[in-house]
Structure formats: C-alpha cells, structure tokens
Amino acid sequence: MGKTRLSHSDKIAQYLFYLIAILMIIIVVYPLWFVIIASFSNPADIANGEVWLLPKHWDFGGYRELFKQKLIWTSYGNTIVYTAVGTLVALVVNIPAGFAMSRKELYGRRAINVFYLIPMFVSGGLIPTYFVVKGFGLLNTFWVMVIPFSVSTYNIIVARTFFKSNLPESLWEAAQLDGCSTFRYFIQIALPLSKSVLAVIGLWTAVGLWNSWFNALIYLNDDALMPLQLLLRRILISNQSLLGAATGAMAMELRRLSDMMKYAAIVVSTLPIMVLYPFLQKYFNKGVMIGAVKE
Description:
mainly alpha
C-alpha cells in the first residue's frame, strides 16, 4: 500500500502542529538552559541582557565558592543516601499496601480505606508530629529522614488502582489453581507486571526526598546529617546576611558571588533528577494516567 497523500489543508495543519510543538519545547527547555548558562556567567552580563544562548564571559566563581563549603560533599552524600533508602522504604511500604487494598477478600477493606484517607485531609500538626518522632527516639538520626513520612495515601491509591485495573482476576484464579499463595502471587506475578507503577511512585518519592529540607530543619541539628537542600539554604541566607553588612567594592563582589552561587546551587541540586527523569519518563506518563483512573 502506498502512502496516503495529505491534502493542502492537512499539510498546513500538520506544519502548524509541528510549530506549536517546537514552541512548547522551547518554552519548557529554555528556562532550564538559561539557569545553566547563567551559573557560568557574570551577573552583570545577565542584568544587561547580554546572555541568551551562551555566556558572554565564562565565570566559574559561583561553583568555586559553592564547592569551597566544607559540608557540601557530606550533605550531597547524605541526600543521595536519604533519597535511595527513602525511596526503597516507600516502595516496600506503599506498594504492598496498595496491593492489599486492591484485594476484594481483604477483611475490613472499607474501614481501612477510610483509615488511610483521613490523614490526607486532616493532619496532626507539626508539634504533635514532633513529639511522636521524639517519642520514638528518631530525633537527630538518619532514620528520621526515611521512616516517619514514608507512607503516602496518594501513592497507595495509585498502586491500588493499578493492581485493580491491570491485573485480571483470572490471573489470580489461575495462580490459585497452581497452589500459589497470596504472598507468592504478589512477589512472583504482580510485582514483575507492575514496573510502570513502581517507576512512577519511585520517581515521585525520589524527587520529594531529594528536594526535602523542611523535615531536616525541624528534626536534625547535627551538621553531619544535613541534606544538600538545607545546606544550600543556609549558604544563601548566610550570603544575604554578609551582603547586608558589607559596603563599597566588597558589597559589589559579594553580590556578584551571591548571584552566581544561586544559579550554581540550582544546577547542583537539580542535575541528578534531571538526568534520571528521561529514563523513567515513559513509566511516569503511564503512572500519571493510572492515578487518574476512577474505580
């Protein structure tokens, strides 16, 4: 069969769609690119509108000052470990819960549903949560960044919806005929067929943990346990304080370094997630649709 020839109006519409798609890509990608080139540019060039596609004058001062901080590599390592371990814990907690909630034979399923849904709308508050965390002896420990906030009702709902809509009941019945237990069915059959929901929940959790700084601010006071985001926040606040106290040429130089460090901090803190996202994008898109499916 030959190719279908498009009419003149169809060709115009096709080119128009291509043009809109290219414009949307530019709108999304250019701000990211601008932050990267701004981190290597003199702030004066940026203020004068002289930086568009490449830095006018290359300047690595922002990265040099950022990486001079004593705790930068320690905090970077902490964030990587928090993200990796926290994502694993979240998957271990939320995925089995979602699977259990999808089973019709689960006793008290409706009551458990309500139990999970209430915290979605009503929070215990910061102070009660602090005392609970303190009561369990998790304050100022590695695990306070991993365990207390690992359960996510939304992720459980997404997992439950996936298991209900993508694993046919006939598959479970066939497994039962072969003498398969519920646990074995979950491990050997359900999980291998659930890569998309594992990827999307893992990605959501990893991004949240990577960007997390408030929990560390509340529950950690040991610099050796500080995550990257909290350290960057401290550095930027410290720079603003120094800038307010300086005058003359020193103030101008501090302002220049402060502006460059802001862009460098954005690049340093977001680069790993930006590198990881393209490899999980196909699962992420499917997972978003899973979350939109109603029972």
